[in-house]
Every structure is written in C-alpha cells, then in structure tokens.
Amino acid sequence: MKVINASLILDNDAVMSFTETTLDTNKSFIVRLPLNELIRITCDNDILRNRYNNEDDQAILNANLDIQVLYDNVRGFILNSKFNRNIEKTLDNEPTKFFFYNNGLTIVAEEIHSYGNFGNKKTKLEIKDFQVLNGGQTLRTIYNYLEKSKSNVIDKLSSAEVLVRFLNITDEEVKNYIGEYTNSQNAINLRDLKSLRKEQVQLESFLAEHKILYIRKRGETGSDTKDYSVSVSMERMGQILMATLLGRPDQVSNKKKEIFNSYYDQLFTNNELLCTEKTVDLIISFNVIGEVYRKYRMSSS
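and the corresponding structure tokens:
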C-alpha cells in the first residue's frame, strides 16, 4: 500500500498536543482544521499535500480524494445517508457552524513531527504514513460537496472547520482498537435527537400551561405528574400530527421513523399551529377516543 504523507501549518491556538506519559517522545495532536486544508492533505496530489504554505486556494478545486487514506476505515461510502445530506446542508447554509455539528476525524500516523514557526506563533506538522480511521463518511461527503458545488465553494470550505485527532501510533493492535472503538459508539435514535430541538422544548412548555405532560425524553415521566390531567409522548404527538395534519392515520404505526426524519419539519418545525389550542384539542380528543375504545374493548371481552 502506498505511503501517504502531508504537511500543514496552523496557528498555535488551533493545536493541542498529547503524550501518553510525560516521558513519551511521540506526540499526538488535536487540531482545529479548515476544510480546504483537510482536502489538501488528503488529496491524491503528492505535491499539493506537502505544500503547507499554499496560497492558491483554487488549487483544491480539481482535487480528488486519495482513496488510500481510507484503506483502514471500516465503512464504505453511504451516498444517500441522511447524515451526509446534513453535512452538505451545513456547508451550504452555516459553514461556520460545521465545527459544532460534526464529531470530527481520527487520523493515525506512523510519524508526526512538529516545529515552531513564524516566531513560535504557528506550528508546522509533518504527518508521515497516515490513515483516516474514523470520519471517512465526513471526508467523502466533503469531497462530494466540492465536486457538486459551484457557488463560493472555496469560501465556504475555508470558513468551515473540523476537529481532527492526529494520533502518533505505530502499534498495529492499538490501531485496530482505535478503529473499532471510535466506530462503535451507541447509535442514538432520531426521535431522541429531535427531543432537544427548540420547538420541542417550546411545545413542552406550552402544553404544561394546559396541564398536559409532554414527554420529550424517553423514560421521563415528569417530576410531579399529579399536576397534569393528560400526558402525551413525543412519539405519540408525532403520530397524532401525521394522522391529522397529513391525513395519514393508516401509516402512523409503520412510518414511525419517517415522523422524525422526512416528515419532521412539516409536522413540527414548520407547523404554525403547533403551540396553539389546536394541538391541545387534538391531544384531548385522542385521549377521549382512546378511553372510549378501551371501555368498549373491556365490555366486549
């Protein structure tokens, strides 16, 4: 397999070093890296990868990912992943927020050398024989965005930054563990992720004023349930809205995932009636109908 090397230079406040022990001479680094630089150091152009003082921003426009940097990455590219679409959406609309929204990349190298530069205000890193162990989806989506985008793509990539861990690791077993552990975190349900959105918090507060307990987070029941006359879970609320707002009562059971994916904005974010008496009436009506149905089931059994 081909050896891939790269050089880059960063402001000191964008770099943090780490050693496993105080006697360890092999330093690893955590850096805040602009995406145009991430593209430069992972592209298939050997000269460009090592041009750390590159002043030609346009040079990356025709850059292609060197697929060899992903040789040890555990995942192939999932082209239509909703997470990849979110990455591209952030780059298009909020590039300066990219650092906050993305988990970053983990890169393992056989050697990393650092040097002070420009009066010790900057740090130069030389990364020898490296691989992207975690963050391959992010990296390939960034390249995909570069290829598709036409308007202000360089400005957007330059203003978007990502957290990158450059780990100086030569032990193959340790590399394997890093690849395994950084790619095996527990998956979080989309419904749980959406529970933190501002419209959900606002709905919870609004319904509380009407003595309705809105259960945003799975497993929560409220600190004092006696103050509420009715309760409704976030998942159930989505089903009620799908049945009434979209007119699809027949799909509320087998389309649960879609409620918090493709239908979410329509049902919650862009729903002008969400925090109104309309929603209160829907919840109360649902509970009344449910109670009538339960009594009917009991009397007929």
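(Above: one complete record from the training split.) The first helix runs from residue 35 to 42.
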